[in-house]
Amino acid sequence: MTWPKQIYAGRGVIEVDRMKSTTFDLNNITPASKMQLRTHFKRDGYLLLKSFLPTAEVQEVQEIIKQRLKESNLIENGQPELQIPEVFQAPSGNENCKVETTTNPGLLGQQDWIKSHPCMVKLLEHPNLYKLFEVLFDSEEITTIPYKWLRAVGSNLFTGLHRDSVYVGHISQDILTAWIPITSVPTTNGSLVVAPASHDSKRWKSVQSEYDSSCGRQGDGTSSGWLCLDPNDIIQKLDVISTPIWVSEDFGPGDVVILDLNVIHMTSTNVTEQWRISCDTRWLPI
């Protein structure tokens, strides 16, 4: 399907254009390439870096997570990979995705298990990410929050419209997020959707000013701290001249998206019957 295209996001349908991809050669970092990277990020509030992490290392982690889901009977044996068992699916009442997953694998609560796998820690704290954030922060002293926001998201589910500051802004206003798809994540499977420049544009000023920075402190982002369930609900608050105002991508293993703390984003709705697996990691200068 060509871009722009219509996708399901939250409880609505939106038109999305394709994310702009940024090339950053870690083997040839120059003052010009550093400046270009920072300029793109400051302008858009996000960076998409295709194949930035080694595919083989991502696939190794993918297999570990699949095995974990199999041990919990959360993957259907004899079915396509990542297929959600029927016992965990119920009628959704949504014609776009007829079933909704009724269980949560709870990967967020398995931090000790994540840390017990060196290859998983290596991927989520990869040297490539350290080099990238050294450039973005213009500092050689970088750290990453030990907690990893690893998720497996089921059918007819999504992450609603939000900004990350409501969850981690109390730690530091300098935090940036790296969103890492562990599996292929097309727009039908719950891809990341971003409103470019929403962190720093007049168009989004009224929405940002109404968004209390404390509203997400009570949760982990599963539902708390969201602006709305249907992203179309906020369109009337924006001075929209043309559409689309959203961008997304059909992501593959190795891709990474960097997000500003205040850029508005969400995921598309997972209208497949397979798990979407991804992880958020947070980074900041020391």
List the helices and strands and how they pair.
Blueprint: E1 5-9, E2 12-18, H1 31-44, E3 46-49, H2 55-71, E4 89-94, E5 97-101, H3 111-115, H4 118-124, H5 127-137, E6 142-144, E7 149-153, H6 165-168, E8 176-181, E9 192-194, H7 205-210, E10 246-248, E11 256-259, E12 265-267, E13 276-285
Parallel strand pairs: 2-10
Antiparallel strand pairs: 1-2, 3-11, 4-5, 6-13, 7-13, 8-11, 8-13, 9-12
Looking at this protein, list some descriptive labels.
286 residues; alpha+beta; 6-stranded antiparallel sheet; 3-stranded mixed sheet; 7 helices; 13 strands
Structure write-up:
The protein contains 7 helices and 13 strands. The protein has 286 residues and is α+β, with helices and mostly antiparallel strands. It is globular and about 55 Å long.
